[in-house]
Amino acid sequence: MTDRNVTVVGAGLAGAEAAYRLLSRGYAVTLYEMKPKKRTPAHKGDGFAELVCSNSLRSDRIQNAVGLLKEEMRALGSLIMRAADATRVPAGGALAVDREGFSAYVTETLRSFPNLTTVGEELTELPDAPAIVATGPLTSDAMSEAIERRFGRSLHFYDAAAPIVTYESLDRDKVFAASRYDRGADYLNCPMTREEYFAFYRALVDAETAPLHTFETPRVFEGCMPVEVMAKRGELTLAYGPLKPVGLEVNGKRPFAVVQLRRDNADGTLYNIVGFQTNLKFSEQKRVFGMIPGLLHAEFARYGVMHRNTFLESPKLLNFDYSLRSDPLLFFAGQMTGVEGYVESAASGLLAAIELIEKLEGRPAIDFTSETAIGALGHYVAGYNGGDFQPMNVTFGIMDPLSERVKGKQERCERIAQRALSKVRAITDTYGL
Q1: β-pairing, 28-32 with 116-119?
Q2: Cα–Cα dist 319/102, whole Å
Q3: Domain 161-308 class?
Q4: Quick check: helix, strand or coil at residue 163?
Q5: What was the pLDDT predicted at 308?
Q6: Apex 129 CA angle, 128 and 130, nearest 5
């Protein structure tokens, strides 16, 4: 007889996606979420699927691997993608959302199911199967200790979030609205002269950072590197990185550097400083970032923060479907498995729930294979065979290459994407997903 009761631990993107899949297939879900009774340092809201760093889900074009992953998830009925599409805000070729509206959409959708039971407390031991553990990269100390008691050492790295400023506090005489290469006007841009850039650079590298308490030499994930750490790699690193001026002009001339601000909510009252993840002290953020043209009197709705992220040694523990090798009805999902990014986290929760349902109904796991983005992520975290496992964003590099040679990068990516979407649609039709 099929067990129709499943436990999901954590209501972040992965947990919310997994819970939705199970609920919509008629399973009774007990969802543990310790907010609002207990919070991590990065969480502020009470809702499910809270976006604690950027409000951007990155590129929405299928020629980009994360854009392809989104399209695969849409084909599989993803709640997270439905919420993102419903609450999107202008961001050029990226999919960015009103973070409060996004969380509210997910929360209200899940709470509308009569077969959902929410438990507002911290779970301090691993649940019995069938279950999906999606406690996130900010897994509480008690749960981290429970995981380590069962599996041994867990890994960690440091992640950072960028600050958010209010629109009304910006000097609009010094900023201009535009997207790169005339692709709309979705960003506010703060152009810098050479002199302004180097004055800012010197202040940034000399600024005081906040203490990290326990760990003196943290491992930093490259995709969310603090801007001050990046700056110390070379005085022009930022000018060729997040402050690159390409595709933007002021009075017909390219500025030396440009800081971009991306809308953070639907009303356009809040803007995220793009690429400015940071661990500077709050007072230093106000002082140093105030040197950016247009931000002298900026009011910070949220300062940037840095926090520890925990992830499993997944290649030793998990199958390609995110189930434990030692317990095939106990799954892990989200960034704690070693996938990195909002979309990747949600995708792992979606796949874990699909696979758990298959097993509960007496069928073998579905292998989406590395021809698809969603399958490639699972195979990466389960099959990595190097000595230094690190979190991974989805890339075409972890997907199976084409059998034929295609010279142009865009055409090659387009063909890989079309092959992947055909595969996902075929699986969806075959298995009734």
Answers
A1: parallel
A2: 31
A3: mainly beta
A4: coil
A5: 73
A6: 140
Please state the rounded mean pLDDT for residues 380-397: 82
Would you list the domain boundaries of the chain? 5-154+312-431, 161-308
Instruction: Name the burial class of residue 406, with classes exposed (0-12), middle (13-18) and buried (19+) by CB atoms within 10 angstroms of its CB.
Output: middle
What DSSP designation does 414 have? H
3-state secondary structure of 64: coil
Indicate whether 215 pLDDT > 60.
no
> In angstroms, rounded to a whole number, what is the distance separating the alpha carbons of residues 140 and 137?
9
Tokens 């399209």 label which residue? 71
From CA 43, how far away is CA 330, in angstroms rounded?
26
* Ranges of H-type helices in 213-291: 227-231, 282-289
CB neighbour list of residue 233: distance below 8 Å, 6 or more residues apart: none
CA atoms within 13 A on the CB side of 108: 8
Nearest residue to 354 (alpha-carbon basis) of 81, 1, 27: 27
CB 109 within 8 A of CB 22: no
How far apart are the C-alpha atoms of 397 and 21, rounded to whole Å? 28
Residue by residue, DSSP assigns 169-213 as GS-TTT-EE--GGGS-S-EEEEEE-HHHHHHHHHHHHHSPBPP-T
- Exposure class string for 31-67: b at 16+ Cβ within 10 A, else e: bbbbbeeeebebbebebbbbbbbbbbbbbbbbbbbbb
Cβ atoms within 10 Å of 139's Cβ, excluding its own: 27
pLDDT at 311: 86
Token pair in block for residue 201:
């650079």
User: Which residue, among 94, 93, 133, 117, has the nearest Cα to 12 in the 3D structure?
Assistant: 133
pLDDT band at 270 (very low <50, low <70, confident <90, very high): confident
Tokens 């993107």 belong to: 13
Domains 5-154+312-431 and 161-308 share a fold: no
Could you give the CA distance from residue 342 to residue 13 in angstroms, rounded to a whole number? 7
Q: Which CATH number does 5-154+312-431 carry? A: 3.50.50.60
Q: What is the pLDDT of residues 27-80, one digit of tens each?
A: 999 999 987 766 665 566 678 999 887 889 999 899 999 999 999 999 999 999
pTM for this predicted structure = 0.79
Residue 155 near residue 311 (C-beta atoms within 8 A): yes
How confident is the model at residue 37, as a pLDDT?
A: 65
